[in-house]
Amino acid sequence: MRRWLAVLLLAGLASSAGAEELRLRLLDVGEGQAVLLSHGERGILVDTGHAGQAPKVLRAIADSGIRHLDMLILSHLHPDHASGYFRLREAWPDTPVLDARHPLPADVSPDMVRWVNEALSRDPLRRRLTAGDSLPWGDARIEVLWPARFDSNNLNRHSLVLHVRHGERSALLMGDAGKVVERALLQQGKDLRAEILVVGHHGASDTGDAAFLAAVRPAWSLISVNRDNLRGYPHDGTLQRLRAAGGRLLRTDEDGDLCLRLPRTAVVTPCRAAGNARQSADIGKVRP
Ligand SMILES: [Zn+2]
Q: Which of 111-115, 174-178, 226-230, 256-260 shows the lowest mean pLDDT across its residues?
């Protein structure tokens, strides 16, 4: 783990511009999630959206000025997060792919989970992430808060939870983790404070517990969800808790691609997402 990381960093960061601000884009990939981090010409993709969204995700990487995709991280292997892996791997053959290597039950469904897992098991650039790992990335750092254990066949329970830190600013990416994981993180006494919260599990009812939100205190809460979601995401109760927690609430189904800047010291501000014609001021508005 440490050795490949050192190689990656030495190879990758010589041209990284330390003064560049970090940008976080939550791409509107319909049903699913894809988070693009960029730092000058360097990028990290956390989740791919579903397979049909791969052309859009690849375009977003190019439009964001990323010339080096340093890591592809898969929070978990459900198709709405990971089935774009095949196309991403073709386009970026030298990018390490990192996931939690959740042991899958033989009858895992849907089949796509198995197919992605089979391809990953043959991928020489696959690396495992687990709670406690810390990935330096230029002058930023990605801390892995979860999974700390595998004790369920529910893949969402073992979703990677990532704390992206850039100077005094940070973003918490929950993947599809829900309240069980939120409670475990609270019990572990982790520092969860983050200006940006990418809300877990598309804002489902099992996410965004009040005690958890009180610990995170997000100034910006972002939800990736498609219009007319079959499962009823985001849940009204979750939206109410997010509003009660304060800050601004943005959703890909209503606001399209979302883009926020994380400077090292100044406040987080919206930026215009490549491909989203809306002015940054529009997505900065406070939702009633
Ligand atoms: Zn999902």
A: 226-230
Calculate how far, in angstroms, residue 11's C-alpha sits from the geometric centre of ligand 1: 33
Q: Are 215 and 186 in contact (CB under 8 A)?
A: yes
Please tell me the CATH superfamily of domain 21-273, with its number.
Ribonuclease Z/Hydroxyacylglutathione hydrolase-like (3.60.15.10)
Whose structure tokens read 């989203």?
Answer: 276
Distance 20 CA to ligand 1 centre (A): 31
Pick from 264, 183, 255: nearest CA to 220 = 255
Q: Tokens at residue 82, please?
A: 């990971």
Q: Which sequence spans correspond to the domains of the chain?
A: 21-273
Distance (angstroms) between ligand 1 centre and the Cα of 110 equals: 13
Hey, how many other C-beta atoms are within 10 angstroms of the C-beta on 273? 25
Per-residue pLDDT tens over the stretch 105-145: 888 889 999 999 999 999 999 999 999 999 999 999 999 99
CA distance 40 to 283: 22
Neighbours of 266 (CB within 10 A): 12
pTM, full prediction: 0.90
Closest to 49 in 3D by CA, of 61, 63, 33, 64: 33
Å from CA of 271 to ligand 1 middle: 25
Strand partners, 197: 172, 221
